[in-house]
Amino acid sequence: PFQSNPFSKLPHGRSPSVPCGQHVAVLLSQKIGEDYVRDLSQLAKLREFVDDDLFIREVAKVKQENKVKFALYLEKEYKVKINPSSMFDVHVKRIHEYKRQLMNCLHIITMYNRIKRDPVKLFVPRTVIIGGKAAPGYHMAKMIIKLINAVAQVVNNDPVVGSKLKVIFLENYRVSLAEKVIPATDLSEQISTAGTEASGTGNMKFMLNGALTIGTMDGANVEMAEEAGEENLFIFGMRVEDVAELDKDGYNAQQYYDRLPELKQAVDQIRSGFFSSDEPDLFRDVVDMLFHHDRFKVFADYEAYVKCQEKVSELYLNSKAWTKMVIRNIAAAGKFSSDRTIKEYARDIWHVEPSDLKIPPPNEPREGAEDRTPNGTAARA
User: Fold this and answer.
1) For the ranges 153-157, 294-298, 351-355, which has the lowest average pLDDT?
2) Which ranges are annotated Basic and acidic residues under compositional bias (predicted)?
């Protein structure tokens, strides 16, 4: 059900910068032609169809089909029943403190506690998917993975929660798995602390495949906001100057813990062994880091992150408005093309012009080349 080459039906072959959902590719080619595969800037033509009700329905239908396929895959691999109508909230990247998978985990616990506190209250269903690999000797990253799995074990088996919230940690995250999850993603998590992400390219892949982004003003999120408009991303939290100011004043995690009841509850549950009843002290190192050694200030952005996630849920209830924002994002993704990057390097750095000259492969003689002896040296007269 998952085509490794989504552009096998298009005449120009595959570009590394184009959507990896075959149905998305076909849908776009039907709407704006197939040349966008070679010239991604042509995606801007989609802006003409932002208010086209038929196109909006087609985009939403393609996304839902991809979600159903991926839900079936998750059920088969992880034995967890997935609600394909739930929001697929995806955070896949290297496991590292600065990527702040821990903040995502605190939000999962907060959502879980809200459901438990008032099970009949309206809750927009979510499937939170986290994936990535940790460096072999990186103890804290390994503990973050363990915590995510421990939280998933509690959440996924609580009958009060039911299909409202599920948590999956993707094992062995790799390209073949990315080809499945990226086309199925509704919400892309890009939540590193402002000023810590050199660039990042995963966020661009998600954008191009019809996911909306929740993130800080960091890395390529900045360029994405410039292209699509900040109003078409869910931007939250500290900016670079805010982080610098907090460093100057001194970051005190305890202040946030004391002020925010939901944060306090989530942290206390981790510390008390609520998610690790067999080993109550299992996550003490994680909690100690968050209070005393957190260079990436998870607690400082927690409140803004949770409030921004509430806005995400609110928009998700309005399928048409959500899909229109998706179309605006895809239409703005043309800049994020390796072809465009190489052309700019060629023009501005290497000062060379494009050429249609075809260079033959090494095993074919080049036209006009000197006759050569068997040992490769030029023949002499």
Assistant:
1) 351-355
2) 364-373
